[in-house]
Design brief:
Blueprint: H1 16-24, H2 32-66, H3 70-73, H4 76-107, H5 110-113, H6 119-122, H7 131-138, H8 141-173, H9 180-220, H10 225-234, H11 239-260, E1 266-269, E2 274-279, E3 289-295, H12 297-309, E4 313-315, H13 317-326, H14 338-353
Parallel strand pairs: 1-4
Antiparallel strand pairs: 1-2, 2-3
Helix pairs in contact: 2-4, 2-9, 8-9
Function: Required for formation of the rod structure in the basal body of the flagellar apparatus. Together with FliI and FliH, may constitute the export apparatus of flagellin.
Membrane topology: Multi-pass membrane protein
Protein name: Flagellar biosynthetic protein FlhB
Length: about 375
């Protein structure tokens, strides 16, 4: 385990902020073996898909050069034109294959760690020019791992190559006895099969290297307990950050509360200082629920929102204060206020059933609010 100067070990998993900072600096997991495997497999796929096209182009180039007239060889202008034509045919031969390889070579590195552009990682670092630091890296654990991977790669590829020569060596030598077209076609087939077998040999190395790179990246970003505490203090521990978080939480809670006001059945008011919105779902049973409440400015917003949505306002100062102090949001009203709220809801239902101004019932008065709920009388 790596240790800090303070002697603390890196035992804590990296925090999201640490991971994001590392990504911003370009410190992401990368596997060279995975990139090599992807490029080799792209080459195999290119040989398989473009074999006929490449064989036809290569045959054309070889026939054109072998049939070159003697006069053209000693004519500079004709020889230059022939060379340019051959170069152009060669480019057409390799262009699809090289294009595929280029695309894969660009996309393969992002398969493990994703795409990231870090100007900090591109900036020159003078410490990398220090021979002593380079010498230490050569004999570090990572240097040893890279050496072992290189040796394993050599052993695997050598074993696969030996197997290929043992199985197909005689057939490759017999290509010289075949006609040009058949020799080119079979030669590309051998090339495709050989590349496929070599790529299969790299699978073992990729299966080892990818988990190791992920583990090593995670290990390097591990933190000491003190670093975790310092990061917490630096971000969420600062008073201004806490204050901002609490402000955002209050604003979101208030917005959600205001969204519930149009769904209420009635808003009981003080009528100016308090406002409590109640909703009663008869199908669910239970008691009415407080969906919004507030004092002063928030109470004014509740009343305005209710008026815009057509929710009735009932002025009942003792009941409004009792509901505000005794019941939290999304909670049912206490049993002691059932009778008083029932009077209010009955009035609301009569009000909705009234067909004209002459049929409007009188608002409820002297609601039965128990003495234990009569608090905050001085607030009005």
């Amino acid at each position: 385990m790596a240790e800090e100067d303070s002697g603390q070990e890196r035992t804590e998993d990296p925090t999201p902020k640490r991971l994001e900072d590392a990504r911003r600096k370009g410190q992401i997991p990368r596997s060279r073996e995975l990139n090599t495997f992807a490029v080799v497999m792209a080459g195999v796929a290119g040989c398989g898909l473009l074999a006929q096209y490449m064989a036809a182009r290569l045959e054309r180039i070889m026939r054109g050069n072998f049939r070159l007239d003697r006069a053209d060889v000693f004519e500079p202008r004709a020889l230059a034109e022939h060379s340019l034509a051959t170069l152009f045919d060669g480019l057409l031969l390799l262009a699809p294959f090289l294009g595929l390889m280029t695309v894969v070579a660009l996309l393969a590195p992002i398969a493990l760690g994703g795409w990231v552009v870090s100007w900090e990682s591109l900036s020159p670092k003078l410490d990398k020019l220090n021979p002593l630091a380079g010498f230490k890296r050569m004999f570090s654990v990572r240097g040893l791992v890279e050496l072992l991977k290189s040796l394993l790669k050599v052993v695997l590829l050598a074993a696969v190559a030996a197997l290929i020569f043992q199985v197909f060596g005689d057939e490759v030598l017999r290509l010289a006895d075949e006609d040009l077209h058949q020799a080119l076609a079979r030669g590309l087939d051998f090339l495709w099969l050989s590349s496929l077998l070599l790529a299969a040999g790299l699978v073992v190395l990729v299966a080892i290297d990818v988990p190791y790179q992920l583990w090593d990246h995670h290990r390097k970003l591990k933190m000491t307990l003190q670093e975790v505490k310092d990061e917490f203090k630096e971000s969420e521990g600062r008073p201004e950050v806490k204050s901002k978080i609490r402000q955002l939480q209050r604003e979101r809670a208030q917005q959600r509360m205001m969204d519930e006001v149009p769904k209420a059945d009635v808003v009981v008011t003080n009528p100016t200082h308090f406002a409590v919105a109640l909703r009663y779902d008869q199908s669910q049973g239970g008691a009415p629920t407080v969906v919004a409440k507030g004092v002063d400015l928030i109470a004014a917003q509740i009343r305005r929102r209710a008026t815009e949505a057509g929710v009735p306002l009932v002025a009942a100062p003792p009941l409004a204060r009792a509901l505000y102090y005794s019941t939290e949001l999304e909670q049912e009203i206490p049993e002691g206020l059932y009778l008083a709220v029932a009077h209010v809801l009955a009035y609301v239902y009569q009000l909705k059933a009234a067909r004209g101004p002459g049929e409007r019932p009188p608002p409820p008065k002297d609601l039965p609010v128990p003495d234990e709920f009569l608090q905050g009388e001085a607030a009005d």
